[in-house]
Design brief:
The chain is an all-alpha fold. The protein is 79% helix and 0% strand. It contains 11 helices and no strands. The chain has helices at 9-21, 29-59, 64-89, 91-104, 112-150, 176-221, 223-230, 234-292, 298-337, 348-364, 380-404. Helix 2 (29-59) runs antiparallel to helix 3, helix 5 packs antiparallel against helix 9 and helix 6 (176-221) runs parallel beside helix 9 (298-337). The longest helix is centred in the middle third of the chain and has 59 residues, at 234-292. The protein is elongated and about 90 Å long. Mean pLDDT is 84; it is low at 1-6.
C-alpha cells in the first residue's frame, strides 16, 4: 500500500507540527527520544510563558487594556496546556488512531472517482490549514514587531520587551535585552505551533472521514451498473445476486469501520472540542475589545486583526469538518435506498440481501457526529451560535466601557 502523505502538503505540515510538539507516534527508540525531547521543550516553553504572564498581570492589575491583553495570552496558554494534557492522557488511543489513519486512509489505492473525492478533500484541508497557519504565524510575528517599532529612537534604558518582565535588573540593556527578547519570541512561536497543530489534525481527520463516507456512497451507487450489466435473465440475475452480496458485505464492513473510527475520534477529542468552542467565544470577544474599544498601540492592530481572522477561520474549520461527517454519514442511507435492490431475485439469497440492506439503512439513519463532551453535536450551526455568544459578550463589555466613560 503506497502512502499519499508525501503528496499532500496538509498532511506533511500537520505531521511536522505534531512531531515538533512531541505528541506523535515513534517507529523506534531513536524517534521516541526525539519526541520526548520535543515534549520537554514544549512544556518548558509553556511554563516560561505562563510565569511571565502571571507576573505581568499581577503588576498590571488595574490597567484594563493591559489586563485584557494579558488575559488573552493566558487563555492561549491554558487551552494549549489543556489540549496537551488531554492528548497525553489518551496518547495510546491517539497513536493507534494515527496508525489506523495512515494505513487505511492515507494511501493511493483508489480508482479515478475516489481519487477525485480525495483531491477535493486535500484542497479544502490545504486551504484551511494554510490560512490558519498564516494568521497564527502573523499574530506571533506581531508580538515581535510591536516592541521593535516601539523601540525606534529609544536608548537602552527605555527599550521594551514583547512582555514585561518586572525584574530588578535592567532588561533594556545588552545583553539582557537580546537574550530575553529571543527567549520570549521562541516561546511565543512554539505556543503558536502547539495551538494550531491539534486542530489541524482534527480537521484533517474529519475531512478524511467525510471523504471516506463519500467513497462508500460511490461504491454503493456503482452496484447499479453491475445490475444493469448482469440482470438480463434468471441465470445472470442469480449470478448478480451473489456478486451483489459480496460487494454489499464489503460496504457494510467499511461502514462499520467508519462508524467505529468516528467513536474513537469522539473519545479522544470530545473534551478538546468543548474547550476549544468555549475558548473561541471568549477570545473573539477579548480581541474585539482590544481592536475597537481599548487604547491599543497602532503597531499591534495588524496582529490583532490577523488574530481575529485566524480565530474565525479556526472556528469555521472545526465546525465545517464536523458538519461534513454528519452530512456524508447521513447520505449513506440515501445511496442504499436508491440502489438496485428491486432487481434482486425473490429467492432465499434475495430475501437475505434485502434484510441486510434494511439493517444498513436503519444503521446509517443514525448519523455519525462529534460532540462537545456530549453537550451538543458540532456542526455549522455551532459556528453561528459561537459568533452570537461572542457578540453578546462584546456588547456587554462595550456597555460597561461606555458607562465608565
Amino acid at each position: 500500500m503506497r502512502l499519499m502523505q508525501s503528496r499532500d502538503i496538509s498532511i506533511d505540515w500537520t505531521c511536522l507540527l505534531m512531531k515538533s510538539v512531541g505528541i506523535w507516534h515513534a517507529a523506534d527508540q531513536t524517534e521516541q527520544r526525539r519526541r520526548n525531547a520535543a515534549l520537554i521543550y514544549t512544556i518548558n516553553a509553556i511554563s516560561i510563558a505562563t510565569c511571565i504572564a502571571f507576573r505581568d498581570i499581577y503588576f498590571s492589575w488595574g490597567n484594563v487594556s493591559n489586563c485584557v491583553f494579558i488575559m488573552c495570552n493566558m487563555l492561549y496558554l491554558m487551552i494549549v496546556l489543556f489540549k496537551i494534557a488531554v492528548l497525553y492522557v489518551n496518547r495510546s488511543e491517539f497513536f493507534e488512531l494515527v496508525r489506523y489513519t495512515q494505513q487505511n486512509f492515507w494511501h493511493s489505492n483508489y480508482d479515478f472517482e475516489e481519487s477525485m473525492i480525495l483531491d477535493n478533500c486535500r484542497r479544502v484541508s490545504g486551504i484551511f490549514i494554510i490560512v490558519l497557519s498564516f494568521c497564527t504565524q502573523g499574530t506571533c510575528a506581531g508580538y515581535m514587531v510591536t516592541p521593535l517599532i516601539e523601540n525606534i529612537g529609544r536608548n537602552e534604558t527605555d527599550r521594551i520587551l514583547p512582555f514585561n518582565m518586572w525584574v530588578s535588573y535592567p532588561t533594556g540593556k545588552s545583553p539582557y535585552f537580546e537574550a530575553l527578547f529571543t527567549i520570549q519570541i521562541l516561546c511565543v512561536y512554539h505556543v503558536g505551533i502547539c495551538y494550531i497543530c491539534f486542530d489541524n489534525f482534527l480537521c484533517l481527520v474529519n475531512l478524511q472521514v467525510a471523504s471516506q463516507f463519500r467513497i462508500l456512497q460511490n461504491r454503493l451507487n456503482n452496484l447499479n451498473s453491475i445490475a444493469e450489466a448482469q440482470a438480463d435473465n434468471e441465470e445472470s440475475l442469480a449470478r448478480y445476486a451473489r456478486i451483489y452480496q459480496a460487494k454489499l458485505a464489503s460496504c457494510v464492513r467499511q461502514h462499520q469501520a467508519l462508524a467505529e473510527y468516528c467513536k474513537h475520534v469522539e473519545n479522544i477529542f470530545t473534551m478538546i472540542i468543548l474547550g476549544q468552542v468555549m475558548f473561541l467565544s471568549l477570545i473573539m470577544c477579548l480581541v474585539g475589545y482590544q481592536l475597537f474599544l481599548a487604547d491599543t498601540p497602532p503597531s499591534r492592530n495588524v496582529s490583532l486583526i490577523l488574530n481575529l481572522m485566524g480565530t474565525l477561520c479556526q472556528l469555521l474549520m472545526i465546525t465545517y469538518s464536523c458538519d461534513g461527517i454528519i452530512r456524508q454519514s447521513s447520505n449513506v442511507s440515501k445511496a442504499i435506498l436508491f440502489g438496485p435492490w428491486p432487481k434482486l431475485p425473490m429467492n432465499g439469497v434475495g430475501r437475505i440481501l434485502r434484510k441486510n440492506i434494511l439493517f444498513m439503512i436503519l444503521r446509517s439513519s443514525r448519523h455519525c457526529c462529534l460532540t462537545a463532551s456530549g453537550f451538543f453535536p458540532v456542526s455549522l450551526e455551532t459556528y453561528t451560535g459561537v459568533l452570537s455568544t461572542a457578540m453578546s459578550y462584546f456588547t456587554l463589555l462595550r456597555q460597561q466601557t461606555l458607562d465608565k466613560v
